[in-house]
Amino acid sequence: MNPDQLKREVASIDWWHTIDLGHGIITPGRNDTPQRLPRIHMPEDLTGKTVLDMGAWDGFYSFEAERRGAERVVAADYYVWSGQDWGSKSGFNLARKALDSKVEDVHVEVMDLSTETVGGPFDLVLFLGVLYHVRHPLQVLENVASVTADHLILETVVDMVGTSRPVMALYPDRELMGDPTNWWGPNPAAVIAMLKDVGFRRVEIVWRDPLPYRIARAFVNQFKLGTPIHHSLRQSRIVCHAWK
Ligand SMILES: C[S@@+](CC[C@H](N)C(=O)[O-])C[C@H]1O[C@@H](n2cnc3c(N)ncnc32)[C@H](O)[C@@H]1O
Question: Is the C-beta atom of 186 inside 6 A of ligand 1?
Answer without folding.
Answer: no
